[in-house]
Specification:
This protein has 530 residues and is α+β, with helices and mostly antiparallel strands. The protein has helices spanning 3-16, 237-255, 284-287, 296-302, 320-336, 338-355, 373-394, 396-410, 417-428, 433-439, and strands at 34-45, 50-60, 66-70, 76-82, 85-86, 90-92, 95-99, 108-118, 139-141, 146-148, 157-158, 161-171, 176-178, 182-189, 192-199, 208-211, 214-220, 223-229, 262-268, 273-276, 279-283, 311-312, 414-415, 448-458, 461-470, 477-485, 488-496, 500-507, 513-516.
Length: 530
């Protein structure tokens, strides 16, 4: 592979690392969510970067004195009605606060909110920052298309609610809108295009895309599999559709039924790599890179189970990136060959050792999102290795069975590292506190040394003695030592929990070397020579 090709592949792989629910407001009370039904009508005026919207929300008012909606501070010309009558409101710092009358508290209410907003975040022409999959863009309405993240506040998001949406998007002729949920159709009339969507599954922030799409569809059982590509990329659709069906079948077998009515691959007009509930948004140039279908596409689809299906409790750390990396990027290499799997594990260990200096290391439970190479190496690479070590600790049947348990028990609910620990302990029938304490809640990884290694004749054989030591703080792990001697190899498994353990192996011929963890099954900090 040429240097240019490698750089392109690395750039695209970085871009396509998922940013689940990017930009969704982090402040959510730990209360039972209230149901909220939105009839949301928006018009996008591309040449003005303008959105005109009206949202009718039906909900049950709490017993507090107001309803609080997250709505961008860019919103202007605000109009609010409650139960058909105008109502005073306060709008500051992206919060719309609507006071309630005493008789309305605890009762069903209908709120109508009208507003306009200009969303004109600058879109990168030549992206350089590969650690933010959207390059800092949260909301952009341009002549090329529309890109609105859930956290951009482009619609009124009722605090602590479980929303359902009926969304209609009016756009110029030929412009089609895409979001989560099920399509109710795209039509053109009266010189405009109308796209209607119904979202009846929980979403933690609704995103919206629009462009001059042409749709191709196939079915996987009752699931609609679709591509929303512009004209220049229509030739890519068949391969993306076929691959998507394959990934859905794989993950349904591993984890359980797909939780959404569709999965769509949607083209964006600038490089992105986002995974949303029931679709992924991929930049136009990235779509054509030959390896994306075999790697990043499956990663995005896996997030429909982990992150968009089972939600992450971000207050306790983001486990979904490590798990998705393991059951997608890594699993594909494992299914290809043992050698590719071994190389993938080695690369994850190298990434962690190289990119995370000890002074900047932090516990996996402290990872929330990828912002730079350090957070990527901890959240993705270390996270994936932790799930690999957990799989080896509990065994194949328990590992995959527990993932099915977690998916069944926490679908559309938040799960934390503690919830994952409890689920694996239930399957394993024993405490795994030591495992999660050292690998999830503590920073770092083992630092190993081979000491006092000597080779002595032992009759017609050779004896290799030595000591495996680790620096403090000590980690508990099982290490394999390998002595190579011609075509022969001698191995010893050593459980190390303290500072050192003895090694003793024998070979027929004089050994050429001694290696620890040659298959790279355990995360550790590599020595500089490695």
């Amino acid at each position: 592979m040429s240097a240019i090709a490698y750089r392109q592949r690395f750039l695209a792989a970085c871009i396509l690392m998922i940013a689940v629910l990017a930009g969704v407001p982090a402040t959510r009370a730990a209360t039972e969510p209230v149901a909220a039904r939105h009839w949301l009508e928006v018009e996008v005026i591309l040449r003005e970067s303008r959105l005109i919207a009206r949202d009718r929300v039906e909900t049950t008012a709490g017993r507090h004195g107001e309803l609080a909606f997250f709505l961008s501070e860019r919103a202007g010309n605000l109009r609010v009605e409650v139960n058909g009558a105008p109502r005073e409101f306060r709008h500051s710092e992206s919060m719309l606060r609507i006071p309630l009358h005493g008789s309305e508290r605890g009762r069903p209410v209908q709120v109508e909110i009208g507003y306009e907003a200009v969303f004109d975040d600058p879109v990168p022409a030549t992206p350089l920052n590969t650690d933010n999959p959207g390059f800092g863009v949260a909301a952009a309405i341009t002549s090329e298309g529309v890109f609105l993240l859930g956290g951009a506040g482009w619609y009124p998001d009722l605090a602590d609610s479980r929303p359902e949406f009926h969304l209609t998007v009016k756009a110029p002729p030929g412009i089609m809108a895409v979001t989560a949920g099920r399509s109710l159709g795209h039509v053109e009339r009266d010189g405009a295009s109308f796209s209607a969507w119904h979202v009846d599954h929980p979403v933690r922030g609704l995103a919206l895309s629009a462009a001059a799409y042409r749709v191709q569809e196939r079915w996987h059982g009752e699931i609609v599999v679709a591509t929303y590509f512009r004209a220049a990329n229509q030739d890519l659709a068949p391969a993306y559709l076929e691959a998507t069906i394959g990934y859905l079948a794989l993950y349904e077998k591993l984890f359980g039924p797909y939780p959404f009515p569709k999965f769509a691959v949607v083209e964006n007009f600038f490089p992105t790599g986002y995974g949303f509930p029931s679709y992924t948004l991929i930049g136009d140039r990235v779509l054509r890179l030959p390896f994306i279908i075999a790697t990043s596409l499956g990663h995005e689809i896996a997030h429909c189970w982990w992150g968009n299906g089972v939600f992450v409790d971000y207050t306790a750390g983001n486990w979904s990136e490590g798990l998705t990396t393991y059951v997608a990027d890594y699993l594909y290499q494992e299914r290809a060959s043992a050698e590719e799997a071994r190389n993938a594990r080695r690369q994850m260990i190298r990434n962690y050792s190289t990119l995370v200096p000890p002074a900047r290391d932090f516990p996996l439970s402290g990872f929330t999102s990828r912002t730079d190479p350090v957070t990527k190496a901890v959240g993705y690479d270390k996270g994936a290795m932790v799930f690999h070590m957990l799989r080896r600790e509990v065994g194949e049947e328990s590992f995959w069975g527990c993932l099915r348990d977690i998916y069944r028990d926490y679908l559309f609910r938040r799960a934390s590292w503690d919830d994952i620990q409890k689920s694996f302990e239930t399957r394993a029938g024993r405490s795994l506190e030591w495992f999660f304490e050292q690998w999830v809640r503590r920073a770092g990884a083992p630092r190993l040394r081979l000491e006092d290694v000597r080779v002595d004749p032992d009759g017609d054989r050779f004896r290799i003695d030595g000591r495996l030591t680790q620096e403090k703080p000590y980690f508990r792990a099982s290490w394999e030592a390998l002595a190579e001697s011609g075509e022969e190899a001698a191995t010893q498994s050593l459980e190390l929990a303290g500072g050192s353990g003895d090694l003793a192996l024998t070979t027929v011929q004089k050994p050429a070397g001694l290696r620890v963890d040659p298959e790279a099954h355990v995360l550790r900090r590599l020595a500089a020579s490695e």
